[in-house]
What we know:
There is one protein chain. By secondary structure, this protein is α+β, with helices and mostly antiparallel strands. It has one domain. The chain has one helix at about 30-45, and strands spanning about 5-10, 10-15. The protein has a two-stranded antiparallel sheet with strand order 1-2. The longest helix is centred in the C-terminal third of the chain and has 18 residues, at about 30-45. It is elongated and about 45 Å long.
Amino acid sequence: EHPDWEVRNGCVFFQKAKGTTACKEIPSLQLINQTLGYARKLQGIV
Length: 46
């Protein structure tokens, strides 16, 4: 019914993506700094 996913035994299973590209490294320090910046802004609003 749905070519990209199916339900078996009450669980949803997704098909593996075709032709995936190599994973890139996540710039963790940049992500942490950006998240903390958002948190500070939200704290100022609330």
